[in-house]
């Protein structure tokens, strides 16, 4: 019974960790709280360097 619970807890922690990582990447890429997304900032930087 106890080894089963250990595996179950590892699975729950793993799923929560994956969710936090995915949410953080989406939050960063979409640029919540900023006027433009990280993708737009990157493209703007490349446009400046190409001129």
Give me a quick take on this structure.
By secondary structure, the protein is mostly helical. It has helices spanning 2-30, 38-50. The chain contains 2 helices and no strands.
Description:
The chain has helices at 2-30, 38-50. It has one domain (2-50). It contains two helices and no strands. With 51 residues, it is mainly alpha-helical.
Gyration radius, to the nearest Å? 19 Å
Question: How many β-strand stretches?
Answer: 0
What is the percentage of strand-forming residues?
Answer: under 5%
| Number of alpha- plus pi-helical segments | 2
- Assembly category: single chain
Keywords: Membrane, Transmembrane, Transmembrane helix
Please give the structural blueprint.
Layout lengths: L1 H29 L7 H13 L1
List keywords for this structure.
single chain; 51 residues; 2 helices
